[in-house]
Amino acid sequence: MAASTYSRRSFMTAGTATLAVGAFAAGTGRVAAAQTGSSARDNLAALDLEVMTVTDTSIALSWTTYALSGGPVEADTELLLGPADSRAPLQQVHFDETPVAMHHVIVDGLEPGRAYRFEARSAGVRAIGNHVVTNLPGSPERTGVVRTLVPPPGRKIRTIAVANDIHIGEEKSGLIVGDFPPGASQEPGLPPYADVMLSGMLAELGRAGVTELFCNGDLTAEARPAEVARARELLDGFGEKGRNWWATRGNHDRPHRGAEYSSCAPYGNEHFDCWGQLFTPRQTMWSTDVGGLRVVGLDSTHVDSSGGLIDPAQFDELDRVLAENPDQPTLSLTHHPVTRDAQWSNFTGPPFVLDDADAMRLQGALARTPGSFLHMSGHTHRTRRGPADVRPDDSRAPTEYLEAGVVVSYPGNYTLITLYEGGYMVNLHRVASPLALRWIARSRHTYFGLVPEYLLGTLADRNHVAHRDFSGLR
Known about the structure:
Layout: E1 4-6, E2 11-12, E3 29-30, H1 38-41, E4 44-54, E5 59-67, E6 73-83, E7 91-100, E8 102-108, E9 115-122, E10 125-126, H2 140-143, E11 145-147, E12 156-163, H3 193-208, E13 213-216, H4 225-238, E14 245-248, E15 266-267, E16 271-272, H5 274-278, E17 286-290, E18 293-297, H6 312-324, E19 330-333, H7 340-345, H8 356-367, E20 372-377, E21 384-386, E22 400-403, E23 413-420, E24 423-430, H9 434-443, H10 451-455, H11 459-462, E25 463-467
Parallel strand pairs: 1-8, 3-6, 12-13, 13-14, 18-19, 19-20, 20-22
Antiparallel strand pairs: 1-2, 4-5, 5-8, 6-7, 6-9, 9-10, 9-11, 12-23, 15-16, 17-18, 21-22, 23-24, 24-25
C-alpha cells in the first residue's frame, strides 16, 4: 500500500495513497479535475471524515464526496498537514486528481508523540465529520488535530493480525431481523463483497510482512459447504493453518439443520457441522505459541442461538494450559464479548453475548493469570473497550477487553497488534483496496444511516498503547 510520506525538512509524495477507483453507486456524478473556484465548491459536500488509524509514525483517514443535489460525486483528493506547534501554513502532502467518491489517504514518516494539524479537501471543499461519534470533544475530525502514539519502550518484536466477522457467502449487509432494516447489496457485476474484503485484507497483510493471522469467528455467512470451502481456500492462499493462520468459531459458523448441509459431518441427531470439518470441532479450545506469545482460542457458540456459552471441558482445558506457565504473555480470543459492559451496551442486550456465568468464569481465569494482557472478541461488529469485571487480587493491571470492528462491511476493519519489549500497540486498519473502499462507502448507510454511530468507536478504542513486560518474547 503506497502512502504519502512526511520528512522533518519537507513534505514529499511517495507514490499515491490508496484510493477507490470509480464511483461506489450507480449514477455517481463527477467534478472535473480542472474545475476550480465557486462552481465546484458550491455543488459539492465532503462528508464522513474519519481518522481511522493513528500509529506512532502514521495516520490514515477517509472521507466521501457528495453532490448537494444528492448522491455521491467523484472529485480529486487532497491532504494538507503540518506540526500543530508550528505557525507555518499547512503543506500539501498528498494530491491526486483521479476522480473518486470515497477518498483514503495514508501519511507515513511522522514523529511519535507529536500533534499535527490537518485538512482533507476535495475540489477545494474541506471534509468534515458529520456524525456524533466524530464530533465528540477532542475528536480529531472536530479539532483538525491528531497526535501520533508513543510506542512502548524497547525493541519491536513482531506484529500479528486479528480479524473477525468475515461472513463469506453473505449477500446483504445490515440486516437485523429478516429483511429489516433495508440492507446493502453488492453492485451488479462486482465480486461478492465478503470475498473482496477478505482478499483485500490478506493482500495488505502480505505487503506489510504480517505472517500470523487470527480469525476470531463468523468466517462464513451460515456455514454452508461452499462458504466454508471458500473461506478455507482464501486463508490457505495466505499460509498454512496452525502456522500462519488460526480460527475460532462464531455463531454464523455453528452446526446447522437442513438438506443443504447434509453432505457434512453429522452433529447430534439433527445438525451437520460443515465448519468443523475444515476448521475445528465445536466447543474445542486451541492454543499456540508465536515467538513466546501464547494465543488461546475458545469456541463460544450455541448450537441454535446467536448468544454464547463455553462448556466445562473447555474451561478445564483453559485452566490446564494457563497453569502450565501463568506468567507467559497471553492473548485470548472468543467470538462473543465477555464483559457486562458489552452485555448492556449492545443494542440486543445480554442474550446476544457470552452467558454471564461463563463470562465471569473466563474473566476469573484470566485475572488469575499474570501473563494475560488482552482478550479480543467480535460479534457486535463494533470497536469498544470494556472494563474488566473480575480484576487481579494484587496490583497488576487487569486484562484488556476489546471488541474489534467488522471486516465484511463498514467500517471494514482488521486489527494489528505490535509487540514491543515494553508492551503492545493496537491499531485498527481499514481494508483499502479500491473495491473494498467502494463497498465500505456503500454499506456505511445501513441501519438507516446510523451504523457509524454504533460501530466506529472512539479513536482511542481503535488505536492505543499499553505497557507490559514482554522482554521474554522473541
